[in-house]
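Good morning N.,

You mentioned wanting to compare the apo and holo forms, so I went ahead and generated the holo version with adenosine-5'-diphosphate. This is what I fed in:
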Amino acid sequence: MSTAVETPRRKLAWSGANLIVLVYAFIPVLWIVSLSLKDTGTLNDGKFWPSSPTRDSYSQIFNNPDFLRALVNSIGICAIATVCALVFGTMAAYAIARLEFPGKRLIVGVSLLIAMFPQIALVTPLFKIETAIGIFDTWLGLIIPYITFALPLAIYTLSAFFREIPWELEKAAKMDGATPFQAFRRVITPLAMPGVFTTAILVFIACWNDFLFALSLTSTSRSRTVPAALSYFQGATTFEVPTGPIAAAAVVITVPIVIFVLFFQRRIVAGLTSGAVKG
Amino acid sequence: MAEINLRNVVKRYPDGALAVDNLNLDIADGEFIILVGPSGCGKSTTLNMVAGLEDITEGELIIDGKVVNDKAPKDRDIAMVFQSYALYPHMTVGDNMGFPLMLAGVDKATIKKKVGDAAEMLELTQHLDRKPANLSGGQRQRVAMGRAIVRSPKAFLMDEPLSNLDAKLRVQMRTQVSRIQKTLGTTTLYVTHDQTEAMTLGDRVVVMRGGIVQQVGSPTELYDSPRNLFVAGFIGSPSMNFLPAEIKGDHLVSALGEAAMPDHVRQAVHGQASGSGVILGLRPEHFEDARLVGDKPGATFTAQIDIVESMGSDIYAYFSVQGSKGAQSAELDEIARDAGQDMSAMGEEITARLDAGARVQSGSPATLWYDTSKLHVFDAETGQNLTLGAGAQLAV
Ligand SMILES: Nc1ncnc2c1ncn2[C@@H]1O[C@H](COP(=O)(O)OP(=O)(O)O)[C@@H](O)[C@H]1O
Ligand SMILES: [Mg+2]
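and this is what came out, ligand included:
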């Protein structure tokens, strides 16, 4: 904005382009927010801004025990799945980044395969298995497939981060008298934290957004998560589509994601490893 | 503090590369030993085996009388300074230095005191709360030293600890390292590819090449009695001049003309057939302006001086000699490649260090004298120094 004579035009062009992208991305979000604030009368008036904003839809969903239960399920299931995926993923990624062992290629290949596997193809077998062993419609019944699909993601992101950490730090820790576990915990883990947080966000969002498994591996509100619960919302009468409450619920479930990202973003400090090696 | 012995140590990497071959070395308690050699000769590998960071393929590593081949690094009580310093970036300088003590379960007060002492010794006291990223290269290097010092280990291992510093700082730190080692009296194994560091720091120097120890000795021993062409060329700066030559009766014929062999040289080459090829080795300081010498025994020759560099205290004269006859040594070529030093033009380019009073001019011919009593004669085939006593050659 300040310096050269020529730049204002280019700046303007870039700002324009950015604006278009932002508008494109945010209009649906704003639209949903707007819908959630409209009352039943003005719901279909076609106006972008609600003419008489109300909190009706919000009070409706927060008085709906199924929705509250779904919210608890979502948070619980996703948090547990994220933590498990991170714990196993960290260990696996560390081994893959640092060690040579037979079958390493196979593990990497298989995890890539899992990540690419069409989930829809697994729904029926999973359903059969879960009903057979009695974990259908339980938290565990969702947590296990979530971990399965989150692990490849976690392993990939984390091993990339581990590879960035200088080998010599680990050797130095060994020479300083650390056991392999101490070296991992006191030297490697703190340095890998930005990677762990990034992975946590990715894994959490992936679980949080899942609809397919949530819908097909649950049958009651006992373990149904929000995306699935939304599809079971009912209006005041059977013929009324509960657009307002659905919009309100959609807004509500994006909030944790935003908080999660903002919270962890501050810890993703780039260049944490600078100063480790060389002069 | 400890004695370290390496017995027939061999290192073969999983990919089949033989990095260290049959290494034998006895390091006395408190000794400062330097491993020196060109890049890739197995110095770091040797150090890492002593540290426990690399497995020993064959042979024994003995520390304080105990075989420690299978002990983890942490059970060997040895500290290491890495070329890259390997400081923990998320810890302050103080925490970095105190880390080994913390792991050893030393109480906070003692850690603080020991870190404080080491920091004082290394002039790091006012930096204790800073992170490594905010330090200069020299300061980081000292933190790395400090981390090794605090826990008073049995031995220090250092892998090219100064090679990331600029030239001036390197000289400063060199004296500091030497001072610290003398003060603490801790057994030290120090790796460098820089022969100047090796010559100035070590009690004894181990010269390696291609995974094989070439010679072990004090800096003066290596300088005065190099066992083979490689050691002769590697140690000393500017390096030794090499000239192919032929033995003709009592004389050596080389590009510098004919020279009568002094007695010890004659005895040394006694076994060599007349007419067989050898390589002469002459250090730059063993040349002199013929006018300044008087009638000291030696040989003279005349050469066209290419370049003269006056250093004040002495003069470096560079000249080339033609018609070098006699042996061409494959060994010599290979060493030149290995050492990567200014041995590239050996046999033609000669460097002479003359007295400041020498009257030589670039572009003019000068009559120079060289000290035949200081002459080294090497076997062109094997590269062995023939002028050493037979006994010295056998003692490995
Ligand atoms: N991890 C390894 N795997 C295979 N070969 C190696 C490995 N590390 C070093 N080498 C080889 O061993 C030889 C000695 O290496 P190194 O000890 O690092 O040499 P230096 O420290 O003297 O420069 C080199 O030829 C190098 O290529
Ligand atoms: Mg090395």
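Chain A touches chain B through 25 residues (CB under 8 Å).

Happy to go through it together on a call whenever suits you.

Best,
F.
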